[in-house]
Amino acid sequence: MFKANQCTLDACVADITTLDVDVIVNAANTSLGGGGVDGAIHRAAGKALLRECEMLGGCATGDAKITGGYALPAKHVIYAVGPVWRGGAHGEADLLASCYQRSLEVAREADCASIAFPAISCGVYHFPADDAVWIAVATVLDTLPRTPHIARVIFACFDDAMFERYQTELKRRQALPSKPL
Hints:
Blueprint: E1 2-4, E2 7-13, E3 23-28, H1 36-45, H2 47-56, E4 64-68, E5 76-81, H3 92-109, E6 114-117, H4 129-143, E7 152-157, H5 160-175
Parallel strand pairs: 2-7, 3-5, 3-6, 6-7
Antiparallel strand pairs: 1-2, 4-5
Helix pairs in contact: 3-4, 4-5
């Protein structure tokens, strides 16, 4: 666990669809569909979620849109479209950072205080996991001062290896000297 100002950041191995938070983030494709995390969220939320997604008109890579949570414990789902890894020279890092930043901004607009992220782009999009974890934690920490009502951030990991990556990065950040405001 890591504390940044009034926000707690933590990682856990969990099925993101079971987390009791205000909003879960869905690693989706530009049409707001797909398998993996997206498929699990849609199965858990029910058909009404798909109907709302169809009305959103898709989402650009690096951006985020919000829906209701329907049958999920979470009140909302934020769809964040991560980049497909193409070697790293095509703006993938900036697009991934934008997913985390935009998700926090959308959560702020919806008055959400707690948010859970999956490892965006680390599945079938093949983003290198170590780089993705560093980008996720750094971007969340950089964005939190502009989203002060966010009190809890959870990185929901799909396996122990990803959990260890997040734990290592959060511990590394905890050990860094504080920057004056």
